[in-house]
Each structure stands twice: as structure tokens, then as C-alpha cells.
């Protein structure tokens, strides 16, 4: 089992990873709020989590992975203002909130399956864990960390020491909340106090999804209302993983509010540290700008597939940037990824033909390199570079195939689907098939490449393939012989 180093958002340093239980990792990943189709920025975050989990498993750990669905309580502002996002969508579409949630959970499931994300161990929905949330809120009330107004139950941040330890932000410097807008609760004690439970009262008197609760308000009977967004993740994490977990992941945008609030309420209620390693992925940009539905740049997987055909191209694109780095999505960048991925698949087919249906052994030198970069804060771009280097090396094609299959446990590119099982191709089988308009110098390089292939000079053949592709042509190897096309 390899020693891993993880960049912890709290310390801002790479820390040596020590799980709570030897060989086992408790991993919580903030899932989507299911009121619309997730854009590819959200899907990048999910893919980053998938790559980390695959890496942990490859490095010898069992991972208990929880990724939730928020289907109630996430308001249009992360600071407890506005309308429930799902109810807003339901009113607009004239549908039931559950119908909205079901629709977009199904769409999300199809999208992550298309991107080959591994199934989580648990996929809880917030609406299935109301009693868990109420129990946690009651504990906070009993311990003096929470208070009740006519409109809501709030967490009192002044009672929790070091409230901003994740974000490094002084709560007094961010005066949002009470008194800053006409919808704010006038009984809220501090601007940064956050809602644990909203009563069906005040601005939420027309809420569509509500439950009875043990909390009291003069505005409603039986404490009827709905949970705040932040308490949901704390309750579901506690339910499936326990009071303290190893890794909590989410988008960088969750640091100042959502994850800061999770820490406060979880540690106040449970009396122990909530998370040992906080991991946050950076944003996916579009043309160097923000990707967001509200900005009109909420590009979906369907939008991308319409242009590039294969959703796995997008996964390949995501592999090219570290999870802690921003990545810029443009028409040019995804087109480049499409061409690179096609070259990658063609190379796999070519090596399969060279191997002639035989499988070799995992190359230990490249495996050691691969493990080393994964253990260094899950450096997937470097891992992909090692795969490319390995494919171009002079090791036997049989060894390349089995090593590639081994590495694909992490990359998730379904490389086996692109392997060609066939007998070795003889000289008599080779027919260099040229599309009209291919320049003579490219045709000559193509013919020279075939000679190298037949002489088992695979490094030289690969070098010529690279030269040809850099000049704008795609090689496709088949049983009938190689073909070449203009990109």
C-alpha cells in the first residue's frame, strides 16, 4: 500500500495521508442539487472525485464513497436567502418538486454513466433523511449552539470557536444575511448565523415540501418546515460514515459557506473533528469566463456530445488538468481533445494488432512511475503523460497492453473496448489505403511506417505516426491494413 500525500484545504499544505482505519477510506462528496441538468463544470467536479477514488482503490485502499443528492433546502442564495431551487423549478414547470428531482437525478445518472464514473457506495437523497437532520438539530439546540426564531432554527456562530478555520475568513468581514435585504429574518442574531430548519412561515409560508418537526414556532403547527442545505450533508455523512471521516470533497465555491457551516454544526453536535482532509476541485471555465446556468454558459454533456460524438472525449479532456487547477473549455480545446483521443485509441488498436492476441506482463518500471504520481496528490495529468510515454516506448506490445489495462483502472477510458484481438498481420496483408488528395510526402511516410511495423521497429513506427498526425492526418489501423484521412 503506497504512502499518499494530499493537499488539505485547511492547512494549504500537502499532508501525509493517514486514514482512520488502516486500508479503508471514508469519503464524502457533495453531490448535485437536482433542479436542472448539470453543466459540464459540475460534471468535471464529479469526474475529479471519481479519479481520486479510483486512485485510492488502485493504491490499495477500500473506499466507502458517499455522494448525495440535494432535493430540498438549497435556496437560490447559499446564504439562506431566496426560494428553494427545486420548488422554483417546479413552479416554473408546473410540476411536483419530487417529479423535478426525479427527472434530473435520472439525467445526472445517465451523464455520469456516459462519463464512466464508478458507482458510489451510497447515494442518499436529502428528503430520505429528515429525521437524521432533526436529531442533529435537536442536539445543537440542547448544547446551546442553536436558537429558534419565528421563522427558523439557526446555528449561532458566536458559540463555535474558530468558525472560519476552513476559509480563513473573519465572519465579521462578511456581513450578509440579517438586515441586508427585505426577506431577511429580523430575529436573526448575527449576519452569519445560518438556518438549520426553516419553518413554513415568513418568506417560506408557501413552501411545497415540508415536514413536521419537534421545533416550535408561533407561526406554524407541529414545527412544520424543511431543512437548511448545510445540515443535510452533515446528517447524511454522519449516517453513512460516522462522526469523523477521512476525506470530504467538493467544489472550491463551497469553502466560504457550505463547508464552513458543515464543520461548525458537525463538530459542535458530535464533539469531535469532522474531517481530516478537505479536498476541493477548481472551476471549469468557458472561454476564460465563468461557467454557470445564470450566465448563459451552462454547457451540458448533451451539448458537447452533439459536437464531438463521444462523451469519453470529455473525460479524456478532464484528465488533462489537475483537480486543483482551473481548466478552460473552448471549441478549440475540446476539438484538440477529440483528435488526441482518437490518436490514443488508434494507437491502442495498432498495439493490439502487434500483440497478435497475446497478453504479456505489467511493466514494473512504468507502474512504479504511475503509482508515484498518483500518490502525489492524485496527479492525473502526469499519470496520463506516463501512459503516453509507455505506449511510445520499445517494450513489447503484449506488455504495453496489459500495463495499459492495469492503468485504466484509474483513467477509466475503457481502453479494452478499443483493443483488437486478431492474428498477426503478415506483409501480404498490408495495403496502405490512401484517401484522395493526400500529399505524396505523407503517403511516403505512411509506407515507411508500415515497413517499420513489419520489422517490429515499433518506436520508429510510432514516431512516424506522430509526425503524420502533427501534419493534420489521422491513421486508422484495421485488419485490411492502415487507412489515412485528413482531420
Reported for the largest beta sheet, the result is: 4 strands, parallel
Discrete helix count: 14
The mean pLDDT is 90
Question: How many strand elements?
Answer: 15
Strand content: 5-15%
Helix/strand order = EEEHEHHHEEEEHEHEEHHEHHHHEHHEE
Protein structure class: alpha/beta
Q: Span from first to last CA?
A: 44 Å
Essential attributes:
single chain; 487 residues; 4-stranded parallel beta sheet; 4-stranded antiparallel beta sheet; 14 helices; 40% helix
Set out the fold topology.
Elements: E1 5-8, E2 13-16, E3 24-29, H1 40-58, E4 62-67, H2 85-93, H3 97-114, H4 130-142, E5 146-148, E6 152-155, E7 194-199, E8 225-227, H5 229-241, E9 245-251, H6 255-270, E10 275-281, E11 284-286, H7 301-308, H8 311-318, E12 327-329, H9 331-355, H10 364-375, H11 380-392, H12 397-411, E13 433-434, H13 440-454, H14 458-470, E14 473-476, E15 483-486
Parallel strand pairs: 3-4, 3-9, 9-10, 11-12, 13-15
Antiparallel strand pairs: 1-2, 5-6, 6-7, 7-8, 14-15
Summary?
This protein has 487 residues and is an alpha/beta fold. 40% of the residues lie in helices and 14% in strands.
Task: Walk me through this protein's architecture.
- The protein is of the alpha/beta class and 487 residues long.
- Helix content is 40%, strand content 14%.
- It has 14 helices and 15 strands.
- It has helices at residues 40-58, 85-93, 97-114, 130-142, 229-241, 255-270, 301-308, 311-318, 331-355, 364-375, 380-392, 397-411, 440-454, 458-470, and strands at 5-8, 13-16, 24-29, 62-67, 146-148, 152-155, 194-199, 225-227, 245-251, 275-281, 284-286, 327-329, 433-434, 473-476, 483-486.
- Strands 4-3-9-10 form a 4-stranded parallel beta sheet, with helices on both faces.
- Strand 14 (473-476) and strand 15 (483-486) form a beta hairpin.
- Helix 4 (130-142) packs across helix 6 (255-270).
- The radius of gyration is 27 Å and the shape is elongated.
- Mean pLDDT is 90; it is low at 175-183 and 421-434.
Amino acid at each position: 500500500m503506497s504512502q499518499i500525500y494530499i493537499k488539505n484545504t485547511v492547512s494549504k499544505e500537502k499532508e501525509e495521508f493517514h486514514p482512520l482505519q488502516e486500508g479503508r477510506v471514508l469519503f464524502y462528496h457533495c453531490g448535485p442539487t437536482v433542479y436542472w441538468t448539470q453543466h459540464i463544470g459540475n460534471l468535471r467536479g464529479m469526474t475529479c472525485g471519481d479519479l481520486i477514488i479510483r486512485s485510492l482503490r488502485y493504491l490499495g485502499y477500500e473506499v466507502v464513497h458517499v455522494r448525495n443528492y440535494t432535493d430540498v433546502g438549497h435556496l437560490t442564495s447559499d446564504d439562506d436567502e431566496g426560494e428553494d431551487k427545486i420548488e422554483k423549478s417546479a413552479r416554473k414547470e408546473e410540476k411536483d418538486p419530487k417529479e423535478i428531482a426525479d427527472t434530473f437525478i435520472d439525467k445526472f445518472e445517465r451523464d455520469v454513466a456516459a462519463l464512466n464514473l464508478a458507482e458510489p457506495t451510497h447515494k442518499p437523497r436529502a428528503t430520505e433523511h429528515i429525521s437524521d437532520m432533526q436529531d442533529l438539530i435537536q442536539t445543537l439546540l440542547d448544547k446551546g449552539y442553536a436558537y429558534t426564531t419565528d421563522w427558523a432554527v439557526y446555528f449561532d456562530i458566536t458559540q463555535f470557536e474558530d468558525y472560519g478555520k476552513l476559509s480563513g475568513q473573519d465572519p465579521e468581514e462578511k456581513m450578509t444575511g440579517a438586515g441586508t435585504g427585505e426577506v431577511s429574518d429580523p430575529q436573526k442574531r448575527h449576519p452569519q448565523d445560518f438556518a438549520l430548519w426553516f419553518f413554513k412561515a415568513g418568506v417560506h409560508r408557501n413552501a411545497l415540501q415540508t415536514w413536521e418537526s419537534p421545533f416550535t414556532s408561533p407561526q406554524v403547527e407541529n414545527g412544520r418546515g424543511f431543512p437548511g442545505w448545510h445540515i443535510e450533508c452533515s446528517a447524511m455523512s454522519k449516517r453513512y460514515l460516522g462522526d469523523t471521516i477521512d476525506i470530504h470533497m467538493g467544489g472550491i465555491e463551497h469553502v466560504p459557506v457550505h463547508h464552513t457551516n458543515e464543520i461548525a454544526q458537525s463538530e459542535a453536535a458530535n464533539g469531535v473533528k469532522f474531517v481530516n482532509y478537505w479536498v476541493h476541485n477548481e472551476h471549469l471555465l468557458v472561454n476564460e469566463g465563468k461557467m454557470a446556468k445564470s450566465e448563459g454558459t451552462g454547457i451540458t454533456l448533451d451539448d458537447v456530445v452533439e459536437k464531438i460524438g463521444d462523451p469519453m472525449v470529455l473525460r479524456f479532456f478532464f484528465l488533462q488538468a489537475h483537480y486543483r487547477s482551473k481548466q478552460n473549455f473552448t471549441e478549440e480545446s475540446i476539438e484538440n481533445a477529440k483528435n488526441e483521443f482518437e490518436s490514443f485509441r488508434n494507437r491502442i488498436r495498432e498495439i493490439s494488432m502487434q500483440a497478435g492476441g497475446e497478453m504479456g506482463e505489467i511493466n514494473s518500471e512504468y507502474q512504479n512511475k504511475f503509482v508515484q504520481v498518483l500518490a502525489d496528490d492524485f496527479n492525473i495529468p502526469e499519470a496520463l503523460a506516463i501512459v503516453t510515454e509507455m505506449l511510445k516506448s520499445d517494450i513489447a506490445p503484449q506488455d504495453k497492453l496489459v500495463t495499459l489495462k492495469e492503468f485504466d483502472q484509474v483513467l477509466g477510458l475503457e481502453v479494452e473496448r478499443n483493443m483488437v484481438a486478431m492474428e498477426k498481420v503478415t506483409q501480404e496483408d498490408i495495403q496502405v489505403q490512401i484517401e484522395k488528395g493526400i500529399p505524396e510526402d505523407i503517403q511516403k511516410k505512411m509506407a515507411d511506417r508500415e515497413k517499420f511495423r513489419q520489422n517490429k521497429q515499433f518506436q520508429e513506427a510510432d514516431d512516424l505516426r506522430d509526425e503524420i498526425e502533427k501534419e493534420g492526418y489521422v491513421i486508422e489501423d484495421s485488419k485490411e491494413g492502415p487507412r489515412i484521412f485528413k482531420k
